[in-house]
Amino acid sequence: MFPLPPRMSRRTAFVGGVAALVVAGLLAWWLVPLGEKAPSGSVKFSTGVTSGVYERYGYLLKEDLAKDLPNVSIGLLTSQGSQENISRVATGKADFTIATADAVAKYRRDNGPGADRLRGCARLYDDYVQLIAAKSSGIKTARDLRGKRVGVGQEGSGVRLIADRLLTAAGLHPKKAVRSVSAGIDTMPGLLESGDLDAFFWSGGLPTAAVQQLSERFDISLVPLDDALVDRLHDTAPVDTRYYRSAMMPADAYKRAQDGTAVPTVAVANLLVTTDRIDADLTEGFTRTVIKSRDRIGKKVHPAQLVDLRTAIYTDPLQLHDGALHYYRSVKP
Fold first, then answer.
1. Where are any strands of DSSP class E within 101-198?
2. pLDDT tens-digit map of 18-27
3. What is the DSSP string of 181-235?
4. Its pTM surpasses 0.90
5. Peptide bond preceding 250: is omega within 30 degrees of 0, i.e. cis?
């Protein structure tokens, strides 16, 4: 240790040290918002199928959560998609997840276990329904799927939910009029390329990497799902289908497959979901990171660029979790 200056007594040094600690404590108090706790523990985040947008988004979000919530351990769980995700969170098998609004509405309408405990954290980005066919198949409309081998997503996925509804709206029984194949985005592109599928449905952000890669090595077409089909879709189940809206896939979503033409389709919002069992401070921190990480994640997962603080609060059909609500109030201009 360095010797004390001749005129500085040990008492003076002690008092000075205490004063420094007090100043540091006051500074820390000023930097950390009043009443905010440092969340800790472990969290399970249910994402989606391998190579899907949910899975990639979850992986990148985990990196930011590790920085913002250093005392929280984040575990990622792959899943078949929205329907399985909602069931996991509602029954306590996961703490946070991403799911489409229509899947959430169906789970609540079916009075699934724990449905009343579900809460929203943020509206994220829209999923676009993509009906992808081999260009050589001659499939131009959804009605042309009659008798064809069609990938409809796996049980428990949001794709299966919307695919069955769209087929019904097109006048096709999902199990009788088409040869439905239960498969996910991790296998459907390969099945189409090998000739084992004529077409498949996918619902995800734009662009989805697996579809992008398929379009670059195989001739595909994006089958339009026009307003008339969307109107019939709304007629099939008016309560749940109000979450679907007509949309256009931009002409450059999959450049090689679209020939510079925008494609009409159906869109549905994705929600960040938890339950009322999850601590408010943890939920607030989780929500804050989701909003704050938009630009960084958006560079690698394009749909994340569409997360918007102005619309994030609209988590219909779920009410906002108290922690998320506190966050939005804290950043309200």
1. 118-134, 149-151, 179-181
2. 444 444 444 4
3. E---TTTHHHHHHHTS-SEEEEEESSS-HHHHHHHHHS-EEE----HHHHHHHHH
4. no
5. no
